[in-house]
């Protein structure tokens, strides 16, 4: 089974001739014994066609040949791949997959047969998204967003390869943009600025929530998803077992980022805040029939689960009406971590409190606070050496 090279010469409307080279290989005969051939191409040179012919013949001989599928990429993604992953990944992950497919992939290359996808096609897609990928027509997408689109394509096409629809995953050899480094983008408050903020939220309905965010470094969804059964005020600790997220007209429960919970110790001031918050909550439940205890620590005014975006809006309003530097609610997490590292808290402990995958990630993420600590460490080491010599 050698296959052969077929040359095609076409005459264009302007009279010029173009030449393309095709590889024709014989496939196993059909059910009724009929001859079956598959054309691959066309290639600009005979040399390129010869190289492909040799590879295809080897794959046919060894049993690794996969006939390119005529299924459209959009069909594979929407009708086959997404339904399988709907029950395998978190709801937020599924929504991210679906958004990338519906808004960025299918409108541009969804009509291409999955067997005809090439790395360059994907590279062209990424460049288009960088220049004009926003759905509102406002310009291009961020490199990190385009990189996320590539991740979806790479996963989906890897599964297509496993299913025998394509011989190899073209996304493996594609070159997505590299997300910009986030090392210098962190914003956070100093301890003095954080004290000002905590004074500003005194008496606010969500005062205890803001204390918890600032003094534990928890994510907003983790604080919104905190239940009283997760709080041990006598032991001064909370256990983060779930997170809340908003979408599709409701608020939903999910596992914490990374899929695992953690226990975080509290300072006494935060414990006092939570005690007072619980007393006010129980008093309100006793005074009005409209308030129902849902078991959540922080709730809407009727006692139901709190939309995490409520914390963001309240935080933004408070900061906008103050003289504090403008930061996001999530930057309270960076503030907590930066203060902890500067205070000499072991990086492993900081990592545990934040719920990071590893201390190495925490160290890399907050290396911006290290230079001053290096100087202090150098001085302490020198003093120890001098004292020992004396």
Give me the strand/helix succession: EEEHHHHHHHHEEEEEHHHHHH
Mean pLDDT: 86
Uncertain parts: none
Shape annotation: elongated
State the helicity in percent bands. Answer: 40-55%
Strand order of the largest sheet: 1-2-3
Q: CA-to-CA gap between the ends? A: 86 Å
| Helix/sheet category | alpha+beta
Largest sheet: 3 strands, antiparallel
How many individual β-strands?
Answer: 8
- Beta percentage is 5-15%
Radius of gyration: 30 Å
By DSSP (H or I, 4+ residues per run), the number of helices equals: 14
Task: Explain what the structure shows.
There is one protein chain. The protein is α+β, with helices and mostly antiparallel strands. The protein has 14 helices and eight strands. The chain has helices spanning about 45-60, 75-85, 90-110, 120-130, 145-160, 190-200, 205-215, 220-225, 270-285, 310-320, 330-340, 345-355, 360-365, 370-390, and strands at about 5-10, 15-25, 35-45, 230, 235-240, 245, 250-255, 260-265. The strands form three sheets. The chain has a three-stranded antiparallel β-sheet with strand order 1-2-3, covered by helices on one side. A three-stranded antiparallel β-sheet has the order 4-5-8, with no helix packed on it. Strands 6-7 form a two-stranded antiparallel sheet. The model has no long low-confidence stretch (mean pLDDT about 85).
């Amino acid at each position: 089974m050698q296959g052969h090279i077929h040359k095609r010469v076409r005459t264009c409307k302007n009279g010029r001739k173009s030449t393309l080279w095709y590889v024709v290989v014989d496939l196993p005969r059909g059910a009724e014994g009929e001859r079956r051939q598959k054309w691959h191409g066309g290639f600009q040179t005979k040399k390129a066609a010869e190289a492909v012919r040799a590879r295809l013949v080897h794959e046919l001989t060894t049993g690794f040949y996969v006939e390119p599928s005529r299924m459209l990429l959009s069909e594979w993604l929407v009708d086959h791949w997404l339904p399988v992953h709907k029950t395998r990944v978190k709801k937020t992950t599924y929504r991210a997959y679906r958004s990338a497919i519906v808004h960025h992939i299918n409108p541009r290359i969804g009509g291409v047969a999955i067997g005809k996808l090439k790395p360059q096609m994907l590279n062209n897609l990424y460049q288009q998204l960088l220049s004009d990928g926003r759905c509102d027509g406002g310009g291009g997408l961020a490199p990190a967003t385009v990189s996320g689109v590539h991740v979806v394509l790479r996963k989906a096409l890897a599964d297509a390869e496993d299913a025998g629809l394509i011989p190899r995953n073209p996304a493996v050899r594609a070159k997505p943009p590299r997300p910009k480094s986030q090392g210098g983008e962190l914003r956070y408050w100093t301890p003095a600025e954080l004290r000002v903020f905590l004074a500003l939220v005194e008496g606010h309905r969500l005062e205890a929530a803001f204390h918890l965010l600032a003094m534990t470094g928890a994510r907003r969804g983790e604080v919104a998803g905190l239940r009283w059964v997760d709080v041990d005020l006598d032991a001064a600790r909370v256990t983060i077992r779930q997170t809340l997220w908003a979408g599709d007209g409701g608020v939903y429960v999910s596992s914490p980022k990374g899929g695992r919970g953690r226990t975080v110790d509290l300072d006494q001031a935060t414990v006092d805040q939570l005690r007072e918050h619980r007393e006010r909550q129980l008093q309100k439940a006793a005074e009005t029939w409209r308030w129902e205890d849902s078991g959540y620590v922080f709730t809407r005014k009727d006692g139901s689960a709190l939309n995490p975006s409520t914390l963001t809006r309240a935080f933004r309003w408070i900061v906008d009406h103050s003289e504090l530097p403008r930061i996001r609610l999530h930057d309270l997490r960076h503030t907590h971590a930066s203060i902890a590292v500067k205070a000499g808290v072991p990086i492993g402990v900081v990592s545990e409190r934040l719920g990071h995958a590893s201390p190495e990630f925490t160290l890399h993420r907050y290396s911006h606070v290290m230079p001053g600590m290096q100087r202090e460490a150098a001085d302490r080491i020198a003093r120890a050496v001098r004292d020992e010599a004396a």
